[in-house]
Amino acid sequence: MSSYRRLLCCKCTAVAAAAAAAVLRPPSLPPSVARCFTTLREQSRVVPFRPSRVAVVAKTTRYEFEQQRYRYAGLSEEELKELLALKGSSYNGLLERHNIHTRNVEHIVHSLRNDGIDVQLVKRREYDEETVRWADAIISAGGDGTMLLAASKILEKSKPVIGVNTDPERSEGHLCLPVRYTYAFPVALQKLYRGEFRWQWRQRIRIYLEGTGVNLTPVDLHEQQLSLEQHSRAHLNLQEHKSAEVSGPYLLPIRALNEVFIGESLSSRASYYEISVDDGPWEKQKSSGLNVCTGTGSKAWSYNINKMAFQAVDEVLKIAKKQEHLNVSLDRKLIEEVTKAYNDSLLYSPEEPKMMFSIREPIANRVFSSSHQRGFSSKVCLRSRCWDACMVVDGGTSFEFNDGAIASIMMDTEDALCTVLLDE
Question: How many domains in the chain?
Answer without folding.
Answer: 3
